[in-house]
Design brief:
Glycoprotein, Type 4 Pilin; 249 residues; alpha+beta
Amino acid sequence: MKTIKRITKMNPLNRPTMTTTPAAESGFTLLEMTAVVMIFSLLIGVAVTIPESYITSKMLNETRKEIVTLGDAILDYYRDVEAFPATLADLVSPSTKPSGWMGPYLEGGFNDEVANKDSYKEDEYLNAYIYSSVSATVRRITSLGPNRTNDSGGGDDIVLNVDVGPVLGDLTRAELSSLNSVIATYNADFLYSNPLSTTMSTLLDELQAANYLPTGAAAKAKYRYDAWSQEYSTGGQTPVLEVFSPGAP
């Protein structure tokens, strides 16, 4: 049992004050030791959890970045080739380079710190990206995500749809600009003496015959249809000053 000594001190105003002090210091109690152990265990748990959550977040972000980079590469490929790559490997080394190919479209693949790899074919979980067709103008890139299971685009799958609609619009506008410039040049010379036909196929024949367009069936087909494979239109107006695209179907 602890004993308490009562000590009476005189303060400067000669008023007594009471203080209590333990007669002897005691060690840690069992309860105090238990509390210390619990706190220490919690700190260890936090120290382990933080790196795991960081790595998980890092792998998700890196996979999303890779998919976006793949999507941009597919769009660049389409601008040059005017067609989708058959496989993701074609972005770097197609077995036969198609007309207009200006690749590689993925310089050096992907370098990252998480999976310690250099590859554009696999996500951060070392699963191959799935490259599939959604429609004539859309391709899909899918990562199976952290569970490494095909959830058909749901679950924790990471999915990007690559729509070339805007690219088709750009290609059509560029081609229309070129063709209408040729028509303007032709009209400056022959608008009154030999106006162009309001039928698109005949109009192109006339431009080729007068050497305003390259000759041949391939050149005629190129200038007859827009990027959606729709025939350009003169609008039926005469004289023909420019031609038009119906726009996205």
